[in-house]
Every structure is written in C-alpha cells, then in structure tokens.
Design a protein that fits this description.
The complex is a heterodimer of chains A (113) and B (221).
Chain A: H1 2-21, H2 33-42, E1 44-46, E2 56-57, E3 61-62, H3 64-70, E4 76-82, E5 85-90, H4 91-97, E6 99-104, E7 107-112
Parallel strand pairs in A: 2-6
Antiparallel strand pairs in A: 4-5, 6-7
Chain B: E1 5-8, E2 11-14, E3 17-24, E4 27-32, E5 38-40, E6 46-48, E7 62-65, H1 66-72, E8 77-79, E9 100-104, E10 111-114, H2 115-121, E11 123-128, E12 131-138, E13 143-148, E14 150-151, E15 154-155, E16 158-161, E17 170-173, E18 179-181, E19 187-189, E20 202-206, H3 207-213, E21 218-219
Parallel strand pairs in B: 10-21
Antiparallel strand pairs in B: 1-2, 3-4, 4-5, 5-6, 9-10, 9-20, 11-12, 12-13, 14-15, 16-17, 17-18, 18-19
The chains are: A alpha+beta (113), B mainly beta (221).
Chain lengths: 113, 221
C-alpha cells in the first residue's frame, strides 16, 4: 500500500510539472505513422515504471446490495450499459488502478480513468 | 472506455492492456499485451509500435453519482472491490465545476462543453460532426451527458422541463412534446414514451488537459 501511494504521489507530481514544460508540435488530423510516433516521443515521458499501476483484468462483480455496502450515495461512479448489462466503477477505486480489462454484456472493454 | 476488439489483418482480435507508466500530454498511456503497441487512452489512438495510426473505438459511458446510476439501472452490477486512493480519483466535477467540460465525440471532431456554460443553459442543442447532439446537465450535482437528437428519422430539439419530483431532471422535445429524463435519455411521457435517445461518447474532462490533447478542438461558447 505504501509503495502504491508512493507511485501515485510521483505520478501526481509529474502530472503537475509536465504541464508547464511539455511543448512540441500540434497533433494534426492526418499524419503518417512516423509523424505520429515522433510527436508521441517528443511529448511523453516515463513517469513511473511499466505496470507500476496494478491494472485489473475481469475483477470480481457484485450486486446492487454490494454496491450499497461499498459506495456512498453521492460517490462518483463510471457507468456503462452494454447489451442490456449495466456496470458501475467508483472513480476513487479507479484512481488506484487507472485501467481495467473488463467484459460487459459479452463485449470486451477497457474501463479507464 | 474502449472496445477491446480490433480487426488485425482481417482477424478479430481481443486486446488486453497494461499501464505503460508513461504520460503523454498529461494523459496516461496503455500498452497491449498482444502487439506491445502504445495507446493514448484519451483518444484511443495508437501512437507507437506495430499498430501505430489505428484507433480503438471509444464507447459511451456516464460519470454520475452512485445514487443516480442505481436509479437509471436498478439491476446494475458493480466492481466489487474496495481500496480507494490515487490522485486522479479526486478529480471530480462537483468541487471544481468551472475547471471541467464535457468532451463529446472522438478524435478531431471532439467538442468540449464547459460546465460554467452548461450551468446556465442545462440543455444545449448542437452538432458534433456527424451527430445532432444534445448536451445535458444537472446544475446541482454537476452531472453531464450527451445524446444524439436523431430518433426514428426525426431530429428533435430539447429544452429543460420542470420536474414533478425533486431529484428528477427532465427535458421536453419541441417536435412531439414528449417528456424525457435528462441523464438517462429515456422518454417517460408523451408520444415517444418508452423510447431512448442514443448516448454518445461523453467524458468529463479538465478543460486545460483537454486542450493539451485537442489543441485545435472546438469549444462550445
């Protein structure tokens, strides 16, 4: 948990700092693969190691009653509804993982924040 | 929220993603375990590696309070996991409404609807190529969503409507006079009762960060 907080704090710091000095060319509509890659490299940085954020794959699913136990009524959730199946993901839980490989209504999706 | 299925050389392939640890224009980058391509999660664009130039389809999603989501989907399932934290989890619109906008659409056509404007207008009829769009807002809870205004070959125009009970936010279309729930996009009374308008890609986004990703993107004024 402490390591996780450390990773988050570092990510936060870089989030804030990067805004002021990241410049570079403007993403345009129609660019060659080489141009896309070049612009990516010019405007990105390794903030934390790969996989430092614990991405989830098909995590446990609960009912509305479970949701009522786990979430506050006014808490923000990301909601998806696909092929008649609905799913909710609390934003503050997403803050820990940032990314989930999920399947909803038979459809493989990402959930990210 | 992306569709993880892509067409890879004519074959349907399901990608699984990991976190690259890279920030691109203040937005995190993900990689896929099948091809090791690096993807911008905000736009779905592959920026480095084998699939560079490809775009993941983004799927519509809501960012609303648990209470609201439950009312919209009484049989919803949930992520059964606790463990709160992280930094991005604190970025929600109720505390910093003026810093936020609703990004509608994907790629170069994406358009931003600033919350300071939605607070005043609540229901905005507009166009985000190629869709006739309505952006809706709950000025109390700062929940926002966008839908297509086209249904059954008819394009509707919406305006805010008075709710019978507090907590329910409604709108009415001028063409049929039907009454709609604003955040679910479902008609609850009138000629179109029982129908739903199509949700569009809608993401609450810090305005300044959105500008980093879409330097030439349109902002509704």
């Amino acid at each position: 948990m402490e390591r996780r907080l450390g990773v988050t704090a570092l990510f936060l710091l870089i989030h804030i700092l990067s805004g002021s000095w990241l410049g570079g060319s403007v993403p345009a509509q129609h660019r060659s693969r080489a141009d896309i890659e070049k612009e990516y490299l010019a405007n990105s940085m390794q903030a934390v190691p790969r996989d430092a954020f614990p991405v989830l794959t098909n995590p446990p699913v609960g009912s509305v009653a479970d949701g009522d136990k786990l979430f506050r009524p006014n808490e923000w959730v990301i909601g998806v509804a696909i092929n008649g199946e609905a799913r909710a993901y609390p934003v503050t839980v997403m803050g820990v993982h940032e990314l989930i490989n999920e399947t909803v209504g038979g459809q493989p999706i990402t959930v990210c924040w | 929220m992306h569709n993880r299925n892509i067409d890879l050389n004519g074959k349907k392939t399901t990608l699984e993603f990991g976190h690259e640890g890279v920030l691109y224009r203040q937005s995190f980058v993900m990689y896929d375990k099948q091809t090791d391509t690096k993807w911008n999660h905000s736009t779905g664009l592959a920026m480095s590696g084998k699939l560079t130039g490809m775009r993941l389809e983004i799927l519509p999603s809501w960012v609303v309070r648990w209470e609201r989501w439950k009312a919209m989907h009484p049989k919803t399932k949930v992520l059964a996991r606790d463990g709160r934290g992280g930094f991005m989890g604190t970025y929600v619109a109720d505390r910093h409404a003026n810093d936020f906008g609703l990004s509608v659409g994907q790629g170069p056509q994406a358009k931003l609807y600033p919350y300071d404007l939605l607070i005043k207008q609540e229901v905005v009829n507009d166009v985000v190529t190629p869709h006739a769009v309505v952006a809706v807002f709950d000025p109390i809870h700062k929940e926002a969503m966008a839908f297509s205004r086209k249904i059954d070959n008819q394009t509707l125009t919406f305006e805010p409507a008075k709710a019978k009970s507090p907590g329910t936010l409604l709108m009415r279309d001028r063409e049929t006079g039907s009454l709609w729930e604003r955040l679910s996009g479902k008609a609850i009374d009138g000629k179109l009762e029982g129908k739903s308008i199509l949700p569009l890609i809608s993401v609450p986004w810090l305005k300044e960060r959105w500008r980093q990703i879409y330097p030439e993107g349109l902002i509704y004024r």
